[in-house]
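Listing S7. Sequence submitted for prediction.
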Amino acid sequence: MGTVGGVPPSPRGRGLRAGACAAFLLLYASGVRAQAGALAPPAVVSSREVMERGQAFAAARQYDRAVAAYREYLATHPADDEVRGALARVLSWQGDYDGDVSLYEDILTRHPVDLEVRVALGRVKSWQKKFAEARRIYEGVLNEEPQNAEAKRGLADTLYWSGAYAPALGLYEEIFAATADPEVAQRIQAVKSELSEAAARQSPRAPIGEEKPGPSLPYRDYFKIGYGHFTYTKNNPDERDWLFEAAKPLGARTLVARVEALDRFGSHDTLLSGELYSPLWEKAWGYLGGALGVDPQFTPRWTLGGEIFQGLGIVYPALSPLEPSFGYRRMSFRGADINLLVPGCTVYFPHDIWLTEKGYLVPDNNSQSLSSALTWRVSDRLQVYASGTFGTVSERILAPQDFTRTDTRVLQGGLTFPLARRLSAEVWGYYEDRHRQYIRRGGSFALLLHW
């Protein structure tokens, strides 16, 4: 037992000292706990917890609170792209597409090959009606992963919303074959309806308007190579013509460019020409064209002109089978410039048959002819025509002889038909009697490769 100054402690003294020790220990323990609490790190919140909280807010349509929660988290965890993606999704639900795009593009600076983020960015671009950008994004994803279902559906939707119904239909049919999704089936019917209405709005002959699901007359996306051979009377040498032609749709418009290598009248000429076909106003379409001869001997040095076609259904429904037209060309030859006027009218009959009447007038020498052509489109890729031209001028002026005032008769007939899914052919025969000048007989053959 211990003593203080040799005197044993009293029971009361021992109690006081014991109480003081207990208080000190209690105080010390509290201090340690307080200090430990002050030094302990705050509770760690995972991105999963943040997203679950944001998703709960979003499910309750409390988008502002979800955005606030995501932004607060990202302020201290700026490298968490998973939460950044979740924030982008909520912003898209709010219609904040610019903020949405900024977030996705930020993520792609660190993860440029992330297909999911690229698909999401493509969808937002399509919602912004930036269809060309969205299409490039989706096509880039599909080049890397052809079976990416989200990218394929996004591309189909983008094509549909932008009015490219034909390619959209092909994609929707692929998606439906793989998924049997009833929503996609409804979209297929909607696209087919749009295509039917578009076909009804445009002239059967016009290489303009909506793209079609596959190769279909009049062709708009092809490369053509052709060869023609013709014989002449009056000791004129045979004529040999090579044709290289390509067409490309530009939205509702179509651009056609060609190169013709012509051996005629003992000379060789190369003619470069092209047309841009375009819809105009309601039930109207037309083209602007030009040609340039390369050091020409008999073809025009240059040609400029165009033609306008107007369906009369705009006036009254009973007149819808009628489509008048008017064309003009200014042609410059060696030693002569001429003006060619081409008034015309087409009458459409049932079963895709039509009759086209055209006049060819050269006021400079009072030459004129009338051409009648009957065409029957048997199917989308099979077409037959026959025509006759009578007067004092050729219907296709390529040389001074063609517009010399001479009694002229021209008979033609031809056939366009498919050889394979991406290959078609054209054949036609030709007979021309230019009184006192020559008789020209022959024909041509061409192959068309469809893109």
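Caption to Listing S7: primary sequence and predicted structure tokens for the chain studied. Residues 60 and 304 are 66 Å apart (CA to CA). The longest helix spans residues 11-39.
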